[in-house]
Specification:
Largest sheet: 6 strands, mixed
Helix content: 25-40%
CATH architecture: 3-Layer(aba) Sandwich
Strand content: 15-25%
Shape: globular
Strand order of the largest sheet: 3-2-4-1-5-6
Distance between the termini: 22 Å
Number of domains: 1
Order of helices and strands: EHHEHEHHHEHEE
CATH class: Alpha Beta
Number of strands: 6
Number of helices: 7
Structural class: alpha/beta
Radius of gyration: 16 Å
């Protein structure tokens, strides 16, 4: 299990044109929108005062730019295992468009033809989890929505199918950790977008 007291902070990259339109964005290297950049700057204040033993980022520019604007690029390590799911034939399509040709398709159950299967993504995420468990201190990760949802599921030791039940908005902050002296892996915070002014969301004062 994770080391006692460990905290793994996850940040989904901020808004891109395709996250706004709902198109699946795997390896397409899109920039942030102007609003995405503005919200990424807001992350700096939300994460202010926290100290991280390691900062990791997907090499794709939407994650790297979010990391940079949040104030963490100077010591960030780019990890190719943190890139988004490879959607293969479904790259650039919306879920509705995919389901017109493959009714009932769910990425966390069915994977992507021409891209990564569920087993392949699970193996990749498991490599990340294994490395995280070997680290001492808090870790901050910048990556993409489906990858981070799968990472949370595997941190808990569950199938990545759980990721389908974990909504994660652009720019959201999450925290994974442990409980009972490290015996249990838990989700301590999920989909915190309150720094963006999301109505009705009550935030903890300290992360």
């Amino acid at each position: 299990m994770g080391q006692s007291g460990s905290k793994i902070y996850l940040v989904r990259h901020c808004e891109t044109a395709w996250s706004l339109s709902g198109q699946h964005t795997g390896m397409t290297d899109l920039a942030l929108t102007a609003r995405g950049e503005e919200r990424a700057r807001g992350l700096e204040a939300r994460l202010h005062g926290l100290s991280f033993a390691r900062v990791l980022s997907s090499p794709l520019q939407r994650a790297r730019r979010t990391c940079e604007l949040a104030g963490f690029s100077s010591n960030a390590v780019l990890d190719p295992d943190l890139v988004e799911w490879n959607y293969g034939d479904y790259e650039g399509l919306t879920t509705a468009e995919i389901q017109r040709v493959r009714p009932g398709w769910v990425v966390f159950r069915d994977g992507c033809p021409g891209g990564e299967s569920v087993a392949q993504l699970t193996a990749r995420v498991d490599r990340v989890v294994s490395r995280l468990r070997a680290l001492a201190g808090s870790v901050l990760i910048f990556s993409s929505g489906h990858l981070l949802r799968a990472l949370a599921a595997r941190w808990l030791g569950l199938s990545i199918e759980l990721g389908g039940a974990l909504a994660l908005d652009p720019g959201a902050i999450c925290m994974l950790g442990d409980d009972h002296g490290g015996a249990d892996s838990v989700i301590r915070l999920w989909n915190d977008t309150g720094y963006q002014g999301t109505p009705g969301l009550v935030l903890p004062q300290r992360l």
